[in-house]
Amino acid sequence: MKKRYKKNILFELCVYLSFIFILHPNALADGCVDCHREMDEGLKAPAEAFQMDVHQKYGLSCTTCHGGDPGQEDIDLAKDDSFKGAPLRKDIPKFCGSCHSDSLYMRRYNPNLRVDQLELYWTSQHGQLLSKGDTKVAVCTDCHGAHGILESSHPKSLSFPWNIPDMCGKCHSDKEYMKGYSISVTQIEDYKQSVHAHALFEKKDLSAPVCNDCHGNHGAIPPEVSSIAFVCRQCHPSAGELFSESPHKAAYDELEISECEACHGNHKILPPSDEMLGTGEGAVCIECHDSDSEAYAVAATIKQKLDSFKSKMQDAEDKLERADRQGVEVSEVKFRLQEAHTILIQVRNLTHSFSLDRIEEKIEEGQGVIEEVAEAGEAALREAKFRKRGLIVATLFIFLLALALLLKIRQIEKQSPQ
Amino acid sequence: MKNLFQKLFVYFDSRLMLSSIGELAKKKKVPEHKHSFWYYFGGICLFLFFIQVITGVLLLLYYKPTMDSAYESIQFIMSQVKFGWLIRSVHSWTANILIGVIFIHMFSAFFMKAYRPPRDLTWITGFFLLLIFMAFGFSGYLLPWNELSFFATRVGTDITGTLPLIGKAIKSFVLGGPDVSGATITRFFWLHVAILPLFTVILLGVHILLVQILGMSKPIGLSEKKVKEVPFFPNFILKDALGWMLILTLIGVLCVFFPWELGKKADIFATTPLGIKPEWYFTFMFTTLKIVPAHVLFLEGEILAIFGFMIGGLIWMLVPYLDRRSGKEIKSPGFSLFGLIILLYIVVMTALTYLHPNL
């Protein structure tokens, strides 16, 4: 009885274990990974990296891309007829595209993922050169990795915003590698000094543009002169609209000057400063307008008005700061000062219209706010002075009272019997 | 005119026995010796308490105890109400000075062994008054509903919540929910302007009455000797008034040159800012909780520290009954040393909080 009971237990255990192995695919050892992990660094790395790969997360394995029979222990038997091995560099886009361009196949894993990457790639500079036989150009694996592909939302992914400049720079900053393409290799270095890089790396603003936001990603190509303005308008629609309404638009189109780039540059877009306006050193207006032209005079006036507005605002702010340091409650007035700051931003934006009337109108609106703030600041400073005077008077009064008390105490002590 | 005052005095005297109070005041004597200076701190505490009552009542005219308008109402008081900035600053500065002076008063009473029977009850009521004023400080700190006070209250009540068995219930009762919210400000306001003042009036009344009945304690050794005594009225009270004037000037200077800041409005969804700490008089406990090891033997360090404070507080309160030598008018240097250690501990821990905030 006891023996039979033991046998039953053993049988049930075998059945359960079989089920576990059949139903759970990961329970089976992956022959590719097992062998590759034992190999030299070069062949071991793909197996190691694949453990983190997004494809693995969706249940895909080595055989999905490379074919073969992972169940075989013998390496020759494992490389059966279905084995594809590593694709040639020139074939990589098609290799990846065989799945990623198949909407029916992709829908099973991620219905939201686009399936036009390959199509776009062939329109890109990279794709066009590859199709002409230039295998130095970027293919899928250069930007996404081969076996440790992470989702682009993963901060360690090569295509995560703050990794993209260096990822593109791997080739585009390499003077030797880029020899023969007759394009600059300073883009990444320039970009890293830009206001956009500052927003991305310093402020950790992931919405700041990186290479692919202006050039496209799978369809990466330098924007044409005519399209640069539209690229910038994706994030700066207001400045773009004002520019389009300005007389500069027609002139730029006629002279085939790229709009925004003409004043702000391309990769090295430095934080815009008011010094770019007017006719002084660093002003961009004087690069085109002669000193005897009307536009030159307008540029000078705009700068002068803006400087005067800023100076008045600074005065008002200084008064508030001084009052604040002296302990007068000015938070509500400071809030009002924010309105003046907003108006200053609007004025700066309006400079893209190059319309003196519109700029003057906005400055006038701001001056009203500044006057109000300055008045409140002066009142706060008067209040601070009043408090100090009050303290002096009160202290004097208390001192006299204390003196009187002291005299009284002495008088009492003299009178009291020892 | 004089006649009118005399008539009024006679009217009230016949009903309230004012003359007998005057007689009592004339008879009351205060011992004068080399430690008499410390007697004045009791009077200063009382003076500061009256300032708190007056400024508190004035603040009530404009203060609104709700999550949406508490901060704005203080902002209004500070910027729009005539002398509102002064009233609020005096209230805040005085609250801090008052607790400091209470500590001085308590330690001076301790080192002069003024707690020895029959003044044991005076000591115990004084101890509870200290706790009440600390509660005043804790509840009042949240009322402006600014960032610092909000998070300091959260940290403070979180510590209470760690107490075994009753911690969570106490925390929930104090906060009016699981976290600092609109319900908390209502409760803290209720505590600050109704419950604590009620207990203060009762305890302060008993404390002062006991001082009147038992008189001022003389240090051990002097009790037996014939010590010079001065009349409480007017000699002592006039000297006390000098102290009040000094402290009033100090408050005025602080309010004009360092008005109590309002800070930023509390944002209940914001993360706790770095370096948040409670008011200075809680920092010795706060820093202890920070430096205590996570586990001491089988006990959680934090809980052990809280129990340590509770037991320490109990011993401190019951010191009149533990120090039997001083009860027999014999010097007790052991208890003086104990008091010195406690004082050093509080000073060192408080200093550490500000000198090494990242402990």
Reported for the largest beta sheet of chain A, the result is:
none
Overall pLDDT of chain B, averaged?
92
User: Per DSSP, what share of the residues of chain B sits in E-state strands of 2 or more residues?
Assistant: under 5%
Oligomer: heterodimer
**Secondary-structure element series of chain A:** HHHHHHHHHHHHHHHHHHHHHHH
Quick overview:
The complex is a heterodimer of chains A (418) and B (359). With 418 residues, chain A is mostly helical. Chain A has helices at residues 2-23, 31-37, 41-50, 54-57, 62-66, 75-78, 92-100, 103-107, 117-123, 125-131, 140-144, 164-172, 175-178, 187-191, 195-202, 211-215, 225-233, 237-245, 247-255, 259-264, 294-325, 331-350, 356-415.
Describe this structure in words.
The complex is a heterodimer of chains A (418) and B (359). In chain A, 62% of the residues lie in helices and 0% in strands. With 418 residues, chain A is mostly helical. Among the domains of chain A are: 223-270, no CATH class; 294-384. Chain B has a domain at 35-274: Cytochrome Bc1 Complex, Chain C, CATH 1.20.810. Chain B is built from 15 helices and 4 strands. In chain B, a hairpin with a 2-residue loop joins strand 3 (295-296) and strand 4. In chain B, helix 11 runs antiparallel to helix 12 and helix 11 (283-291) crosses helix 15. The N and C termini of chain B lie far apart (68 Å). Chain A binds chain B through residues 327-332, 387-388, 390-391, 394-395, 398-399, 401-402, 405-406, 408-409, 412-413, 416, and chain B through 75, 78-79, 85-86, 230-231, 234-235, 238-239, 241-242, 245-246, 248-249, 252-253, 256-259, 262.
Element layout with pairings:
The complex is a heterodimer of chains A (418) and B (359).
Chain A (H helix, E strand, L loop, with lengths): L1 H22 L7 H7 L3 H10 L3 H4 L4 H5 L8 H4 L13 H9 L2 H5 L9 H7 L1 H7 L8 H5 L19 H9 L2 H4 L8 H5 L3 H8 L8 H5 L9 H9 L3 H9 L1 H9 L3 H6 L29 H32 L5 H20 L5 H60 L3
Helix pairs in contact in A: 2-3, 9-10, 17-18, 21-22, 21-23, 22-23
Chain B lengths: L1 H15 L1 H10 L1 E3 L8 H21 L9 H10 L4 H28 L8 H23 L4 H15 L5 H9 L6 H33 L14 E3 H26 L25 H9 L3 E2 L2 E2 H17 L1 H4 L1 H4 L5 H23 L4
Antiparallel strand pairs in B: 1-2, 3-4
Helix pairs in contact in B: 3-5, 3-10, 4-5, 5-6, 5-10, 6-9, 7-8, 11-12, 11-15
